[in-house]
Amino acid sequence: MATTGADRSLTQASLPKQNLPLVRRLEAVGFRAWPAASVQYDGSWQVRLTAGHPSNRLNSIVPLDPSDHRDVEIRLEKASRKFEAYGRPAVVRETPLASRILIDLIKEQGWKRFDETVVMVCDLSQADLPDTLDHLPTHDVGRFVDANLAVDQAQLSLKPALAEIISAIKPPCGLFMIDDATHGPLATVLCVQDNDLAGVMSLSVAGSHRRKGLGIEILTSALRWARMRSARTAWLQVKLSNAPAIALYDRLGFRDAYHYCYWQERCE
């Protein structure tokens, strides 16, 4: 029987214990794979801000120790003021590393919960991947950014920020895309290889060309590239509501590692 998004949510909520070392490691590589322009620490809280890009991964307060709940109300207010200076409401990213005292506080304050996301992992040694690369990565960041924005039908004003984010990625990364002369860019994916881990970022397929196998075609090329470079485990993040993408990842052997969600400060 297929696992639905609701099933995943209930299963996650009922888990009595999380693999916190794995969560910490995946969070760390995630930060390196998608670097924010400004990162500040308050104890174990990471405050990530990026003025030119709206991504919540780049603009959120990320608690990294469940036992760090000293002066939470004061520290939350202080962090929220940093977001106010950027002209946006504060956002907290709740992972299994967040203190329950902090989460209870933002619930009491009426913060809004949204975007439950699944972090999934795959053993690349067991993954059924092509023997050869169907697509080679490009080193042209500008061309990749143009393709990614076109596939996502995103605002062109995001180009400078997105190019800056990708250029700031320190681990080796492969920029993959599929396009043709008639339709232009059809699919993109960014794969970041951080030692034995490979992060899959920004997998997108043009709306007019979905359900044609392009997603699995470009994803398997990226994973094959990472495995050739000695990556042993792949990881990715996908919204719980994105059932087609989750089904694709399930087919390739990805399994849930943990969930996270966001909380947004109530606007007066």
UniProtKB/TrEMBL annotation:
PANTHER family: AMINOALKYLPHOSPHONATE N-ACETYLTRANSFERASE-RELATED-RELATED (PTHR43877). Keywords: Acyltransferase, Transferase. Pfam families: Rv0428c_C. Residues 131-268 form the N-acetyltransferase domain. InterPro entries: Acyl_CoA_acyltransferase, Bact_Acetyltransf, GNAT_dom, Rv0428c-like_C. It comes from Rhizobium mesosinicum. This is GNAT family N-acetyltransferase. Gene3D superfamilies: 3.40.630.30. It comes from the Bacteria.
